[in-house]
Amino acid sequence: MSNIGVLAIRGLAGGTVVVLFSVVGELLRPKSFAGIFAAAPSVALASLLVTTALRGETAVRASALGMIAGAIALVAACGEAVPRAPGLGRFDPGLAGRRRGSLRSGAPVTDHVDEGGVGSDTGRLRSIRPRDLAVRFAFGAAVSVVAGIVGFTVGEPAGGVLLAFPAILPAALTLIESREGTSTAVSDVRGAVVGALGMLGFAVAVVVLSGRIPVLVALLVATVTWAALSPALYFGGTRIAGVLGEQRYLPDVAVAEAVPAVEALRHAGLTVAVAETCSGGVLCALLSAVPGASDAVRGGVVIHAVDVERTLLDVPAEILEKDTVEAAACAMAERARRLLNADVGLSVAGATDAEPARVRPIVVAAVAPSGARTTRIEGDEGPEANTGKAVRDALRLCVEVLRGG
User: Fold this and answer.
1) Cβ distance 67 to 161 under 8 Å?
2) Which of 53, 58, 306, 367 fits as disulfide partner to 372, beta carbons 3.0 to 4.6 Å?
3) Buried b (16+ CB within 10 A) or exposed e, 132-169
4) What is the pLDDT of residue 321?
5) Mean predicted confidence (pLDDT) in 40-52
6) Which phi and psi (to 5°) does residue 331 adopt?
């Protein structure tokens, strides 16, 4: 077979395997765990399978030797990228001391590392756009073809270096950042560090086992090595980070996500006021950052103390002490609307910390002359994730209450 034919097969195989790995990564949470799949040996597995069939065992082993160098470079690159994001991957001595004190005293530890427990969400399949898959296929195919060209012209070890290139990661980071914010994208990079270490294990396994057992079996064992090593490193690292503690940071919700709410208010000729507890002013800041927001945003009130809710917003004590959080959230939104002379009131009430959230979960409310809407944040995925959900729900409810739907 000609070199062009080999390159075409490598490109098709590389793109297909990258898409499969990326779909699995999309289903997993949190993003730092899903990031393992962003640095999966997808291109390497596809390319080495093609090399096995067309060029033989010697070429496979030579490519894997080069891949070891590439994987080491990837670990260094991802590890360097993580601390550059504010609050991510940075050691907080104060938090560590408080955490150790909690462990000694037996008190519940409520600080979160990243976004909550590991799990999957099959509902995310519906949100995967064909365009996103096409972008990832293109990255995978391109890397596979370039690695093949380098292998033909310079040598298999040089081409093997490129097999460690995480074809899923650059496409995933671009798409995640535009959709979910920078913090989520950097969490993906954090997981990619672990995935890159697992990829190093993959390459070493191929080099060690090639020539001792059939190549296809060696590739299978290497894939299992990556699949076992990466989660083990992830959970070990998470446990260490949980003991040491990490700085918290605000949710990274893109300003673009607030545009529909502000535009709906401006189109209706209405204004909005905000009352916030656990979100600490993030919702009002986001609305205010939209160009032209001064036509629609009257202002906001940030409250943490219950007595301030009673005095400043004049929320009846019986609602705060006896009624549901939904009733308190609606009362806050209504009082903010009246206090700031606005047409629509939005509120975020509750607690983002794990322990208080069991007593007073987060509830978001939107109140307008046409009616009121509320929603409850289910589950506890940590302060940043909980606050981000609350802010996004408030923006959604704002639009819904304006439409009367």
Assistant:
1) yes
2) 367
3) bbebbbebbbbbbbbbbebbeeeebbbbbbbbbbbbbb
4) 64
5) 87
6) -65, -40
Q: What domain range is 383 assigned to?
A: 255-403
Q: What is the per-residue pLDDT across 143-163, written as a single tens digit (0 to 9) for each? A: 889 988 998 899 889 988 888
Query: Kindly report the CA angle at 278 between 272 and 279, in degrees rounded to 5?
Result: 50
Q: How far apart are CA 244 and CA 238, in angstroms?
A: 10
H-helix or E-strand spanning residue 157: helix 156-163
Given 186, 219, 244, the domain boundary residue is: 244
Distance CA 313, CA 199 (A): 56
Q: How many domains does the chain have?
A: 2
> 212 and 265: one domain?
no
Do residues 362 and 386 touch, judged by C-beta distance below 8 A? Answer: yes
Strand, coil or helix: 32: helix
pLDDT (tens digit per residue) in 4-19: 888 899 899 988 988 8
Q: What are the φ/ψ torsions at residue 348 (nearest 5 degrees)? A: -125, 115
* Paired tokens of 129: 């756009």
380: left (phi over 0), alpha (psi -120 to 50) or beta: beta
Structure tokens at 349: 């009430």
Rounded Cα gap, residues 262 and 258, in angstroms = 6
Query: What's the token pair of residue 37?
Result: 């799949």
Q: How far apart are the C-alpha atoms of 292 and 260, rounded to whole Å?
A: 12
- The answer, as to whether pTM is greater than 0.85, is no
The answer to whether residue 56 is domain-embedded is yes
What is the pLDDT confidence band of residue 175, given thresholds at 50, 70 and 90?
very low
Question: Residue 388's closest CA among 129, 91, 183, 95?
Answer: 183
What is the C-alpha to C-alpha distance for residues 79 and 86, in angstroms, rounded to an integer? 14
Pairing of β 297-302 and β 363-368: unpaired
85 lies in the same domain as 128: yes
- Residue 172: inside a domain: yes
